Amino acid sequence: MRSANRTQSIIFTLLLGLTLAAAGPAAAEVEEITDVRINRAVENQLRLDYGVPAHLIDVATTDGIVTLSGSVDNLLARRRAGKIAAAIRGVRSVVNQVTIVPVARTDEQIQEDVETALFEDPATRLYQVELEVDRGKVILTGTVDSRARRDLAEEVASGNRGVRGVDNRISVEYPEERLDPEIKAEVERKLAADTHVNEQQVSVEVTDGRVHLSGTVGSFSEKFRARRLAWVGGVASVNDEGLEVEPWAEEDIFPEIEDAIISDEEIRVSIREALSDDPRAAPFEIGVEVEAGLVELTGTVDNLAAKRAAVGIARNTDGVWSVSNRIKVRPVTELTDTEIAARLRGSLDRDVLLDRFDITVQVRNRMAFLSGTVNTHWERNRAEDLATRVEGVVEVSNRITVTEEWPWKSDRQIKSDIEDYLYWSPLVDEEQVTVSVEEGVATLTGEVDSWREYNTAVARTFAAGAREVDNQLTVKGVTDIVHDPRHHYRDYLFPEFDPLDHQIW
User: Fold this and answer.
1) Is residue 334 exposed (0-12), middle (13-18) or buried (19+ Cβ within 10 Å)?
2) Is residue 58 a part of any domain in this protein?
3) How many domains does the chain have?
4) Whole-prediction pTM
5) Which of 165, 221, 326, 383 is the most buried (most CB within 10 A)?
6) Regarding predicted confidence, which is higher, 286 or 13?
7) pLDDT tens digits, residue range 357-373?
């Protein structure tokens, strides 16, 4: 725990205020986003993220390009640091030079763990993948039929103790060839359907299966997201060098609601296509019904991770206001509760983040009950995510507690930092959110354009130091919002980086 750092007040030099209100033009806003301010924002958000040892990471920014250096003890922390930097307004690119100094383990031990992890994961067990380990680096070879499956194999390998890096040499052989116009049309549909990309500013060209992206995006995380979405079936390569990152462009990611209306059929098609591309959800027949932007998912899957992946896909689809999840989990293999608990115990013990914690596992009627204590919310969420991947688990009750304490700040400091954090997030139009703070409780009011902004605003408010959040925000076009009970610091899951959490950095 870095309690000393976290209890200190983090005060930004906020110079926008009336200057921007008076200036108006996009150029004035760009002038305010200097390298010094970007660097400070990255350092502070690393410091406040419990999944990253910020005291071991150095940050340097030149012309909007952030370079991270230093060392961490696991690959997941290195990637998380890169994702956090990418999510800062004004960042044009991230050069991640952080090195890995993992716990000492033999190559044989690492190989056994990675092989077990790949075999026991319901989505990777059937992959034609082989591996070897050389001084802590995992080398993956073999063949899969999509880029998403290739990346998932790397993700599963990366989370094991002692892994210094992953050299992913898995080749992708598509089941059938696709014409360039077909590829182009699918990429454009995916960009249009995703809530994190403004497709109107991104041009797509395809030549011999090679995708070229050009145009302007408002943040580096948006550029990264666009690149990931472009890897559809049949794509040989993706070149995003023509995508320029300009902070003023993020203004257009918040369109007027009249221009953003999407038909229910368009939403349904977008979700269906995304489900077919996801390596966890693709093997199953999942029903999708949409009415006035409200999505209902039905069907049967054989593992909980697939069910949750389907929900995540629906929530990230443009035009979706709410998701009703009626998918049933029905495992194919008849494992006893004892056998399921043993597999889950092994998964937690192999994990690079969780092996040092005493997490109690119980399984009753295929529901996994997790209890114990961890240091961070990230670790708590990680334990639940691993449990969803264990064969036989149909639901998870996460009773793990977190030891981190709320670092006291004055109300005035909290309000200032919340406003700054909302400003630095490229996913929130901070001008739409009004903040008030009393005795550590932050109240958010105003009207935002999407559920993405609604949820991200809460996450950013906690990251800035609020003890509790009373979220009274409304969403354009939605008249029946039922506000959740007041969010508490201890219970919040910090979802602001979810769009990148399951993607290789």
Assistant:
1) exposed
2) yes
3) 6
4) 0.79
5) 221
6) 286
7) 999 999 999 999 999 99
